[in-house]
Specification:
The protein has 130 residues and is mainly alpha-helical. The chain has helices at residues 8-31, 36-48, 56-65, 72-84, 113-120, 126-129, and strands at residues 88-91, 94-95, 100-101, 107-110. It has a single domain (9-125), classed as Orthogonal Bundle (Arc Repressor Mutant, subunit A). The protein has 6 helices and 4 strands, in the order ααααββββαα. Helix 1 crosses helix 5 and helix 3 crosses helix 4.
Amino acid sequence: MGPLSWQPGLCQTCLEGVFDSVLLKNVVARCQVRNVALLKRLMRLVAHRVGTPFNAHSVVRFLKNQKAGASVETIQAYLDHLSAACLVHPVSRWDIRGRTHLALGEKYSLCDVGLFSAILGGPADVNAVL
């Protein structure tokens, strides 16, 4: 048997398996998350809005428009759990003139480009991720 050849479908399956195992074992089991569907939806939202400032209030407003309710505390807790599991990385905004961190409007980025592909179900747009 020779070396493995490149198979995009197999690669996508592996990435999705790693993402699901990290999400389910590290976040759901350890942090006792009750609403797994909301957590997955939040991860998709973070992947879509990577690099753009948002906060828990804007996510709650978005979910309310989509007929899915959640509290600000729940969304913030889920973002903290995702950050602790090294799936997302919060980047606080910096005020250049005042040389301080701004309290609102953090940006979230995915910790791995492969996660972008696993979450959105296709090849990653590297320019959007970077």
